[in-house]
Amino acid sequence: MRKGEQTREMILERAAQLFSQQGYFGSSLSDLMRETGLEKGGIYNHFRGKDDLALAAFDYSVGLIWQRIEQELAGKDNAIDRLLAVITAYRSIIDDPILVGGCPLLNTAVESDDAHPALRDRTREAMTGLRKWIRKTISQGKAAGEIRQETDGDFLATIIISSIEGAVVLSKLYDDHTHMYRVVDFLTQQINAIRK
């Protein structure tokens, strides 16, 4: 990796962490300069501005989530096992956070709702990707005879994502991972119940 690419990657890593902890609107340019050790020009040499950096840092954060999910998916071909792997990945994010501050999808969805349309759209796109992945996995499982035919993939995608993100909120709010563990146990039972 060239030096410029290394610098850009370092900026993304530190900006993602900063935005995760303080939020996009709560993070100033001076905060970014402090975290990266760069001057304004050094940061904006790689990004057109704070909005561009926020979008790139969000994409970086989502990439970290998918890396964790892909680690859990390794070697799992059965649709039920793949669905359970996503839940396990989110539990591992609580036990061993990829970023301090909670789930970047949840944090960004809340913060950007009306205040930053481009960031909200990017968050919606990432969430849609996860929803589609769950629905597709269920559809493939039904076709392979691994999942009951009456299973509603869209309904289950909503339940899985809402439950996990709600568990992230409670676990962070109360500084108690029990909330995530309970949701993981519940979702595991629900997913095993659709096994054919």
Topology:
Elements: H1 3-22, H2 29-36, H3 40-44, H4 50-73, H5 79-95, H6 104-112, H7 117-143, H8 153-174, H9 178-193
Helix pairs in contact: 1-2, 1-4, 4-5, 4-7, 5-7, 5-9, 6-7, 7-8, 8-9
Report the major sheet: none
> What oligomeric state is this?
single chain
Based on secondary structure, the structural category is: mainly alpha
How far is the first residue's CA from the last residue's CA?
47 Å
Task: Work out the helicity level.
Answer: over 70%
What is the H/E string?
A: HHHHHHHHH
Shape: elongated
| Integer tally of domains | 1
> What is the highest CATH level, the class?
Mainly Alpha
The second-level CATH architecture is: Orthogonal Bundle
The CATH topology is what? Tetracycline Repressor, domain 2
**How many helical elements?**
9
User: Measured on Cα atoms, how large is the radius of gyration?
Assistant: 18 Å
Characterize the structure shown.
With 196 residues, the chain is mostly helical. The protein has one domain: Tetracycline Repressor, domain 2, CATH 1.10.357. The chain contains nine helices and no strands. Helix 4 packs across helix 5. The longest helix has 27 residues, at 117-143. The relative contact order is 0.11. The model has no long low-confidence stretch (mean pLDDT 93).
